[in-house]
Design brief:
With 450 residues, the chain is mainly alpha-helical. It has 17 helices and no strands.
């Protein structure tokens, strides 16, 4: 019988980390492509108002999704730990507690978001001509939060077990369905923003059903069983101990990025449009690099459970090298092919020039973020997130705001604004690396493994 799980505690780390991460990279790329298809369909077939309405909700959707991803990070770390230690009872309690926690979190976000969507969008100064459709889109989209929470839960569990291929298959299928439903609801049914939102919700529930069906049918100890569905207070506390700081990190990043966007808006509309076009590179690069961060957490947590300290260090260094290399290669590649890339979004020479300014600064900056994010993922694998999250908040969020009101306010150039990324990443990376070294040295030398 074909085996999808991977033993992360033995064998070549170079090979296994790469094989583990490649499906995650494709999964992340597909999510970017499918999200772009949503925007493309509504923009081309429903008009600029519909496009603006959908776009005006993006920061909220990113925030809500980030909270669920953060919670799933706690699930991934704890599941991998107990798989590595081969503790069947703790593993079973963790998985069944986690599915209830994730579902509850998704439902809470859905209910609160729907109830306050109008007020939140008004507070964000959403334009009058957009707010009606924006509220409709957001309320429908939020109905899919429970499904998104369950898919992230399942993906976290399977990734902890070394299975990154089947979540990719499910996401690919659901994504294709999403695109087809987008076209059907918008072109055939003329549902504009409602159609795009409904298509997203249906595809989210499809992916959730597929991944839950797998977990209820597999025989492994991390599979779901109806008779074991209950919350363990101890396991819930440990999951939340890791998951809540991760979720908070996403929320703080969203707030910090609002200040950056406000600074961009201080330039003329050509610069704003150029920044928006070039910023489409960010999710492509970050999400591909993020595959190695997930690998870092899973490999380190499993080997921590298996008392293999040396493999923890090697996993961290290999994941760091892989993610740094991907960041540099993609950043430089995007700069070298900047004109074809930016031409996908605009044909205006001035906009392309403004976008080129951003890419010229970010090209070598993306790789630096690996030192921060990979070190954070490594600490998460060791069950430590509170202090690393504070470091991220201070270094990559508070520092950016201070930079905007000091350095950027002094020079007021695009270069002085974009340099805040690499400077904040460098500062935070130093703190994260030193913290990881500190907690790594405290791990007992119970067992060594090459």
């Amino acid at each position: 019988m074909k085996t999808y799980e991977m033993d992360l505690c033995s064998g070549s780390l170079w090979k296994k980390i790469l094989f583990y991460s490649v499906p995650l990279m494709f999964s992340n790329i597909l999510q970017v492509v499918f999200n772009l298809s949503d925007v493309a369909v509504v923009g081309k077939f429903a008009g600029p108002i519909a496009l603006g309405a959908v776009g005006s909700t993006s920061i909220l959707i990113t925030l809500f999704t980030g909270v669920l991803i953060g919670l799933a990070g706690g699930v991934n770390s704890m599941t991998a730990l107990y798989i590595g230690s081969r503790n069947r009872d703790d593993l079973r309690e963790t998985v069944h507690t986690a599915v209830i926690l994730c579902l509850a979190a998704g439902a809470a976000i859905s209910i609160l978001g729907i109830a306050f969507s109008d007020g939140i969008l008004t507070f964000m100064h959403t334009k009058d001509e957009l707010i009606r459709d924006a509220v409709i889109y957001l309320r429908i989209y939020l109905l899919g939060m429970p499904a998104l929470a369950l898919y992230n839960f399942g993906n976290a569990v399977l990734s902890a077990a070394g299975d990154t291929r089947r979540p990719l298959y499910y996401l690919s299928f659901a994504g294709v369905v999403n695109v087809l439903l987008n076209l059907f609801f918008v072109i055939v049914c003329h549902l504009d923003v409602k159609g795009v939102a409904i298509a997203s919700v249906l595809s989210q529930y499809l992916s959730a059903v597929l991944i839950l069906r797998l977990l209820f049918h597999i025989r492994e100890d991390f599979g779901l069983r109806p008779k074991h569905l209950h919350i363990s207070g101890d396991k819930a506390a440990r999951i939340l101990h890791i998951g809540i700081p991760c979720a908070l990190q996403y929320a703080i990043f969203a707030v910090a990025n609002l200040f950056v966007q406000t600074s961009v808006n201080s330039f003329d509309h050509v610069v704003v449009e150029g920044n928006s076009a070039a910023a489409n590179a960010d999710p492509l690069v970050y999400d591909m690099m993020a595959a190695f961060y997930t690998a870092c957490t899973s490999f380190i947590a499993q080997n921590l459970g298996a008392d293999k300290k040396d493999r923890i260090r090697k996993s961290y260094l290999i994941c760091l090298l892989y993610s740094f290399s991907v960041g540099i290669l993609l950043g430089v590649g995007l700069y070298l092919f900047r004109n074809p890339f930016l031409s996908l979004f605009t044909s205006e020479p001035g906009v392309i020039a403004a976008g080129t300014t951003r890419l010229s600064v970010m090209a070598l900056s993306y790789g630096v973020s690996a030192f921060m994010d990979c070190s954070l993922a490594a600490s998460r694998g060791l069950g430590k997130t509170a202090i690393p999250t504070v470091m991220v908040i201070l270094g990559s969020c508070v520092f950016r705001i201070v930079w905007i009101y000091t350095v950027f306010a002094r020079f007021h150039t695009l270069e002085s604004l974009y340099l805040l990324y690499v400077c904040s990443w460098s500062l935070t990376a130093v703190a994260q690396i030193l913290y990881f070294i500190r907690i790594y040295r405290r791990i007992p030398n119970a067992a060594q493994s090459a």
